[in-house]
Amino acid sequence: MKINKREIEHVAMLARLKLDDEELTQFTTQIGDILSYVEKLNELDTTKVEPTSHVFDLKNVFRNDVVGSSLSREKVLSNAPEGTGKYYKVPKIIEQ
Amino acid sequence: MELYTKTISECQSLIRNGQISSVELTRSVLGRIASLNERLGAYITVTGDTAFRQAEEADKIIRSQPVENLPPLMGIPVAVKDNMCTEGVRTTCASALLDDFVPPYESTVTGRLAAEGYVLLGKTNMDEFAMGSSNETSAFYSVKNPWNTEMAPGGSSGGSAVAVAADACIGALGSDTGGSIRQPAALCGVVGLKPTYGRVSRYGLVAFASSLDQIGPLAKTVKDAAILLQAIAGPDTNDSTCAPFEVPDFTSSLGRDIKGIKVGIPKQYFIEGMHPRVEDSVKKAINQLESLGAKAVEVDLPHTDYAVSTYYILATSEASSNLARFDGVRFGVRRQKESDLMDMYTTTRSAGFGPEVKRRIMLGTYALSSGYYDAYYLKAQQVRTLIKQDFEHAFNSVDIMACPTTPAPAFRLGEKLDDPLQMYLNDIFTISANLAGLPGISVPCGFTDDNLPVGLQLLGRPFDEENLLMVAHAYEQSTDWHKIKPKLLDI
């Protein structure tokens, strides 16, 4: 087995996902299969190969530092599941 | 002949001659959508009211302006995949998480179509967040292949491909990360073009894998694809990965002689186990190109076998990072069981994402996690360089390449859903173009004995969509495949 349930649970936590038992079992098998398949890449010696960072070697793109137009606060906040009209609202994050 | 069957270029002349109005055309297509959509599931949202309003506005402009001043897409009804932001029009990415998302801004591509006076018909169904090859991962409903409604249409731009194939639009936009335009185009018997990475702005496209994603047209003919590409291509200050190159006139190269064009036939793209009729149709298409004066030469792409592995590490890694933004704070459907932030994040994401999206986020998170980065992500980026070099080398001796779009025709709905690896292998011939950033097009080139369409894939040099479209057009015009439409007898 390429990956075990405990590792899958850890990855789920990193990805901010909660898996039920069925998902946990299924993902452990499926992700294990996929990881075994991609092992194939180790057949290749890549010690002297540069990794691709941009497919056409595009360098930094600059623009003039000029203020452009932006969305209104109202528009930006319009899709917030919870907000005050001025801010996004999230559950309390500071312990008392 | 019903108006909805027309191509973009036919509609252009009909509108300009004053034979039809945009409103009449729009009414015809909306009627077609209404009669088919429940059955085929191609659209998630149909924007009937705004479509009529846009068509009326277009008609006013058409009546008041000299014909030569009219932009090419004035009054033409187009469908847009539901992962491109349309201001004020719900954009879901076929995800429960974005069920109620109404973008406050317009994507560059739809903004450019709007500037030409197009009519937005609606937003097409897709695999959730464009992750899938069958359109079955949509959170809403799957899409049916109009050639046989028990078959998958391909994905992830399945809704757009079906809308084109079933005449439920005049043309459409899709996006292609590993074949998501070309594969459904092949399986539905329409034209699908993935432009060079950087040819079209991705601003306002909900990101899946940013180094691979590219927007492009799905259309009834190669000429229509050229017209749509012309409208959306070109540099954009809102997307710094969009290349700062001049855009050539794509339609002017159509109809040129392809005599002497060197067509590379990658030997790794004709594999054991591929569907015999697919192989046969594509080989006949290559013979047809030769009879038009092209020279076929075998080329070697030795790292082809590693493309799927490379892709599924890179695409999932980028996805795990891109989809981190869906946390229930700024947009989307928030869900919560306990009162703390961590619970809000995990409950929102666990309920909002479907299984394929979760699987890919997990795989990508694993590949990027501490201790595994070098073994997976870095290794895959190195192999990507080798794949890219294969193409650079091969394109030293040929102008274009020809191969199958997919190893097999449309498969049954549900057939591969429980076996992600089998599903991924469906993209075996399309993925490399994304890894190497190259433009690729699928054009109809035949049918199997079961009357399912087969696609011929042509691949071009970076930013050489001109030659790609020219050869595709020459092939298409010398055959009748693109004129054959699904009968949809049972509707």
Rounded to an integer in angstroms, the radius of gyration calculated over CA atoms of chain A is 23 Å
CATH superfamily of the domain at 3-261 in chain B: Amidase signature (AS) domain
Instruction: Give the CATH architecture of the domain at 3-261 in chain B.
Output: Alpha-Beta Complex
Under the CATH scheme, the architecture of the domain at 5-41 in chain A is Orthogonal Bundle
Give the biggest sheet of chain B.
11 strands, mixed
Provide the CATH top-level class of the domain at 5-41 in chain A: Mainly Alpha
How would you name the oligomeric state of the polypeptide chains in this document? heterodimer
Mean pLDDT of chain B: 96
Morphology call of chain B? globular
In spatial order, strands of the major sheet of chain B run 1-3-2-4-6-5-10-11-9-7-8
Explain this structure.
The complex is a heterodimer of chains A (96) and B (491). With 96 residues, chain A is mainly alpha-helical. In chain A, 34% of the residues lie in helices and 0% in strands. Chain A has helices at 5-14, 21-38, 73-77. The model of chain A has no long low-confidence stretch (mean pLDDT 92). Chain B has a domain at 3-261: Amidase signature (AS) domain (Amidase signature (AS) enzymes, Alpha-Beta Complex), CATH 3.90.1300.10. Chain B starts with 7 loop residues before the first helix and ends in a 14-residue tail after the last helix. The longest helix of chain B is centred in the last third of the chain and has 21 residues, at 374-394. Chain B has helices at 8-16, 22-40, 48-64, 108-115, 158-165, 182-188, 222-232, 276-291, 307-322, 341-352, 355-368, 374-394, 420-425, 431-435, 465-477, and strands at residues 43-46, 77-81, 119-124, 171-176, 191-194, 214-219, 262-266, 295-299, 400-404, 440-447, 453-460. Helix content of chain B is 37%, strand content 13%. With 491 residues, chain B is an alpha/beta fold. At the A-B interface, helix 1 and helix 2 of A face helix 9, helix 10, helix 11, helix 12 and helix 13 of B.
